[in-house]
Amino acid sequence: MYALRGVHRNVLIPKAKKLLIIITHCGIYEYLRMPFGIKNAPSHYQRMINTIFPTELSEGWLIIYIDDIIICSDTWPLHLERLSRVLDKVSGVNIKISLKKCNFGFEEIKALGHIVSGLSLGIDKNKVAEVLLKPIHKNKKDMMYVSARKIAETEC
Fold first, then answer.
1. CATH, residue 79
2. In this predicted model, what pLDDT tens digit does every residue of 45-65 receive, in sequence order?
3. pTM for this model (two decimals)
């Protein structure tokens, strides 16, 4: 599942509002909610979302990374029970879920560069395939050539 508006859910305290003032030729503006790009915004949101699901996280069947929520189950009835439990808590704290970005009932999904299936977590083979296909450089001259080529590519 995908939680909408992530860090924007957090209302700023008055002290934080004063630190996030924006001055433009049109006037002076201040954020009312936490904007993207603030250094501690993701960790603050992660702590907030973790406090909603302490039991589920400690039981190990719920994985949450910022606004991505993954529910793991061995059986369909158990999955429906856990899904209901998570949705009840999410609606209880008024978090909206994007149905367009949700996948329900899959035995295996790709999330954050990993393959999640049941109660296991593995590496997405497509993410490492390109690295594995790269030639192995056997000497210093080859490495210097590759490094110089990479630098030239990034500068152009």
1. 3.30.70
2. 888 889 989 999 999 888 888
3. 0.65
The domain of 115 spans 6-155
Distance of CA 53 to the CA centre of its chain: 16
What CA–CA distance (Å, rounded) separates 40 from 153?
33
Query: Which residues, including other chains, have CB under 8 Å from residue 156's CB and lie 6 or more apart?
Result: none
Distance CA(35)–CA(22), nearest Å, equals 12
User: What are residue 108's DSSP bridge partners?
Assistant: 117
Structure-block tokens of residue 76: 């369909």
Give the Cα separation of 87 and 63 in Å (integer): 14
Give dist(CA 54, CA 116) in Å, integer: 21
Number of domain units in the chain: 1
Q: Provide the residue type at 61 as one letter.
A: W
Q: How many helices (H) and strands (E) does the chain have?
A: 6, 7
**What single-letter amino acid sits at 130?**
E
* Residues forming a β-bridge with 115: 110, 122
Write the CA distances from 130 to 123, 124, 126, 133, 151, integer angstroms: 13, 12, 7, 5, 19
